[in-house]
Amino acid sequence: YFLAPGETLQVDAPGILQNDTDPENDALSIIIVQNVLNGTLTLQSNGGFTYIHDGSDSTSDTFTYKINDGAMDSFKTATVTLNIIQAPIIQISPQKPISNSSYHVSISSSGDWIEYHINSSAWEHYTEPFDIDIEGSYSIQARVKHNEDWLDASPVSFTIDQTPPSPPKNIISNPPENQCTSEVLHIEWDAGTDAQTAIAGYTYVLDTLESTIPNNQIDSTTLSFVGNNLHAGDHYYFHISSVDTAGNISTP
């Protein structure tokens, strides 16, 4: 038996007695050995029953019974399984809304026929996980067939951004370049830009090497930097790059 979360299942006679007989053709009664856990069961003497699921996330429920012919119980018990078809669950890896790498997409459901579509494309039959690696924004929807209806998943959206942002602009030092006479240096700049997502922050290095390239670990989300404990006679270079929300880094 199959039903949706919170749905009522009505099974008419002979129901669960359809495969039960007695050699003397005595009338059979049903004895519940173990009741359902995730809903309400109403059992009729003729074998029919009504089951109301409690709407939880359970994927199945069961009840076990035996029969009696008025003189003795059956030696064996029988178990009825009620399969709860939950709406599909869409899972993505990495589990974040913005990335500069590909996404792995999988869809699971207790139902047999799952369909999905990406953005505004047509519905497709889902058979196996798939990858998306082309830059852009995506919204994935999924559904599972139940009788003549569909159970919809919660959509999942993400963006692949593989384009580096622009570097910071108008970098100004105080004191001005080549005029530092103290151990403290103040540097300010204008924000970089990113066409696909947004600037998350800035990575920078102040050192005595001309060719240093900063990594993509964000050092600041503001537009200024203060360098302390500078040594007289040393020549310093300030290397700075923008980092976007996908993890892409600009040229220094």
From TrEMBL:
Fibronectin type-III domain sequence ranges: 164-252
Gene3D superfamilies: 2.60.40.2810, Immunoglobulins
InterPro entries assigned: FN3_dom (IPR003961), FN3_sf (IPR036116), Ig-like_fold (IPR013783)
Residue ranges that the Swiss-Prot or TrEMBL entry lists as coiled coil: none
Protein's UniProt name: Fibronectin type-III domain-containing protein
